[in-house]
Amino acid sequence: MPAENEKLTAHAVILAGGRGTRFWPRSSMRTPKQLLNITGHETMLEQTAARLLPLFPAARLWTVTNSAQSAAVKKQLPAAARSRVLIEPTGRNTAAAIALAAIHVRHASKGDALLAVLPADHFIARPAPYRQIVKAALSLAREQGRMIVLGIPPTRPDTGFGYIERMGDAIAANSCSAFAVRRFTEKPELAAAQAYLASGNYHWNAGMFFWRVSTFLDNLRRFLPKTHAALESLATTIGTRRYDSLLRKIYPRLESISVDYAILEPATQQPGPPQVFVIPAEVGWSDIGSWAAVHELLAAHPGDNVSPGPFHALDAEGNFLWSPGKFVAAIGVKNLVVVETDDALLIVPRERAQDVGKLVKWLESRGMKKLL
């Protein structure tokens, strides 16, 4: 148990290195999904930072991104957070990204600290209850060895999300309930997802994690010892001229694996008291994984047409129409996604919106870099 008088500062780590290929043609290597105003006037990253500022001073907001996006990321962050942007030389998935942030937070804190690890590109409709849950998660994470994950109560048998199975009685923290995690399951078949929904014991994995820096690094040493050793060697160079060259040398060699697979899943299989806990979070969450998800989020009713600019629909329903510089007329079409940029036009049925990522791969294979 933590000492009652132990003072631990809380820091937030925003993961902002993804490409968001399913939001082509608006998204690109330099302006991925998190840097776009997908659901309103503010970008996803700006919304994420604004949501966190009541809990974390800007100087304790850390962002992990890549060199192609770092300049744009800094522009969208509060001034005090811009010096806390960490640049990966190459993407090595979330375990490495979180570990990089952890050694920097430990260095800045001159010791242990609490970490909230959060995606840059998720939507939260109810920020006030969300912040209460974050407070509860940080409170639970004060205990050494505990790892907390937020779980979204599922509303449908979705096969595109990871699931968290909970067990046992609830423990209370700041008017929230937490449950020990039995296991994590990745993207199940439809029949399994239907059974999970019916059981009431499963939640979607929102990719939001809370722990001490020391808890995370202890588990990193346990389950990814090579990555741990490499980053501990890097930690000794933070603030020196050796840091950048050593980062470029060691980072591409790190294991490329998600923190779920690398640490959380094996931790649930260890003997002894539970280490991983889930807090159910009904906060109006969406990972906004495709243009179809944007329509679902913004449309008051499934048959509504959604457009950011002036348009008129005649015998048309369920369409998402993005062409903000032009008047859009839709006649006799249903359930389409239409997205126009200066150099490309996307037309796809809403039910095929996930396939936009396949188109991006095709463009890459043809070397059509101007469209990426």
Question: Would you give an account of this structure?
Answer:
There is one protein chain. The chain has 372 residues and is of the alpha/beta class. The chain has 2 domains: 10-286, Alpha-Beta Complex (Spore Coat Polysaccharide Biosynthesis Protein SpsA, Chain A), CATH 3.90.550.10; 291-371, no CATH class. The protein is 32% helix and 24% strand. It has 11 helices and 16 strands. The chain has helices at 44-52, 67-76, 93-109, 127-141, 190-199, 213-223, 225-235, 243-250, 259-268, 291-298, 356-365; strands spanning 10-15, 61-66, 85-88, 114-119, 123-124, 147-152, 163-173, 176-185, 202-212, 276-280, 285-286, 311-314, 320-322, 328-331, 336-340, 345-349. The strands form 4 sheets. It has a 5-stranded mixed β-barrel with strand order 6-9-7-8-10, surrounded by 4 helices. The protein has a 3-stranded mixed sheet with strand order 13-15-16, with helices on one face. Helix 3 (93-109) packs across helix 6, helix 3 (93-109) packs across helix 9 and helix 6 packs across helix 7 (225-235). The protein starts with 9 loop residues before the first strand and ends in a 7-residue tail after the last helix. The mean pLDDT is 95.
